[in-house]
Amino acid sequence: MGISVDKKPSHEAAGINEDWPAGRGVFVDDSHAFLLLVNFEDHIQIIATSENGDIGSCLRSLSKVTAKFEKLGFANDPVLGYLTTNPANLGTGLDLNAQVYTHTNVSEHCRGILKTSYACKTEKIGKRHYSVTYN
Amino acid sequence: MFDEVFDPIVKALHPKFNSQLEFKNDFELGGLKSWSDHIQRETSRIPLLRLTAKRNFSNYPFAPMLSTEAKIQIEKKIQETLGELYGQYHQLSKLDGKIKDWL
Predict the structure, then answer these.
(1) Which chain B residues are closer than 8 Å to A6 by Cβ?
(2) What is the interface pTM, i.e. ipTM, of the complex?
């Protein structure tokens, strides 16, 4: 799945790694449709996954779970949107990661276009197998 | 607090940006359907899709300023809310290798 539950060295100086591992936890749904990370970089990270590329079902389960936690009161701002520890995630607080099999190898040039025009980070995992992240 | 420093920079980079504008949510899940039908035939090429929402609660400070008690309070509150959902909550200190491998 590619989700890390280890300490991140970059969080050390910010003090995010204090009292490790107290208060941290992971919730896994029985049907493996979503999982929650508690008290890592942000208070709560809701992750919806799909193994058949169905983005609709992903969004539906994400909005369902997010709505459950809405009553606890999320930190938001009328201009900035949802507030997050890392300013890079401000706004919707969403990020999308997809693993994709391609017909041919993706050239460096093409990955450059994805990065500059679509703000997508691509990472090669295997032969004609890429991970694309957008946030 | 940082407005004095950042506002001129934001203005210079994005002249059209108006910090007084309020965001209006016009997103609807229903609208997604036609679009997802369109990409349906290519979905076999996507073995894994992951969508993450990062949220913080308004009545607690952000992670760097969080005290140990506050962390445990947040964990408790989340666990209470989770009570209605089917699944298993694992504390990080008691997380077994099987789940770690799956993650």
Answers:
(1) none
(2) 0.82
> Is B54 in contact with A95 (Cβ distance < 8 A)?
yes
Which tokens sit at A33?
A: 């449709």
Q: Residue B9 above 70 pLDDT?
A: yes
Whether B16 has a pLDDT exceeding 80, the answer reads no
C-alpha to C-alpha distances, B53 to A40, A44, B58, nearest whole angstrom: 13, 8, 16
**Mutation target among A30, A39, A41, A43 for the B interface, most CBs of B within 10 A:** A43
Domain boundary assignment for chain B: 3-102
Domains in chain A, CATH or no CATH each: 1-88 (3.30.590.10), 95-135 (no CATH)
Helix (H, G, I), strand (E, B) or coil at A76: strand
Q: Does A63 touch chain B (CB under 8 A)?
A: yes
